[in-house]
Amino acid sequence: MSSEPIALSEALATFDARWSPRVVTRVNDYEARIAKVEGEHVWHVHESTDEFFLVLDGELRIGLREPEGERTVTLPAGSVFTVPRGVEHRPFAPRPTAILMFEPSGTLSVGDRHEDVPGHVDATTGHELVLPGPDA
To answer: What are phi and psi of 11, to 5 degrees?
Structure first.
């Protein structure tokens, strides 16, 4: 973990992979993760934790399967939304989008239960962010 401030724009510039979060920092037992997303993720659920989203750039839509039925929330840049634990959901970005997520360390990006994971989805607990050195 860095002991220096991290510019999220610079951190996002270090990778291109979609749906492959990078751990920016840790706070107690939680991780702040950034990701570039586009297209559909998979329907999934986190049984024991909420999932927090902050849209840094672009637009994120989250389909929710709730007891009342299905609905979609739309998050423009600067918006936040928390998916409650136990709610099946599927993030979707109609165009390239950058997001920040805050969740317990070790949380899988495809949750505890999920659809088949396509090859373009990186089912991960978050890759370590690698920033270029000062001489890069």
So the answer is: -65, -45
Residue bearing tokens 């389909």: 63
Instruction: Please say if the pLDDT value at position 70 is more than 80.
Output: yes
Residue 123 has a pLDDT of 62
Residue closest to 20 by CA, chosen among 116, 110, 112: 110
Query: pTM (2 decimals)?
Result: 0.87
pLDDT at 4: 86
Count of Cβ atoms closer than 10 Å to residue 80 Cβ: 11
Question: What span, in angstroms and rounded, lies between the C-alpha atoms of 36 and 19?
Answer: 6
- Measured CA to CA, the distance from residue 88 to residue 111 in angstroms comes to 9
Q: Which residues of 47-69 are buried (b: 16+ CB within 10 A; e: fewer)?
A: eebebbbbbbbbbbebbbeeeee
- How many Cα atoms within 13 Å fall on the side-chain side of residue 27? 7
Nearby residues of 50 by Cβ (< 8 Å), 6 or more positions away: 82, 83, 84, 85, 103
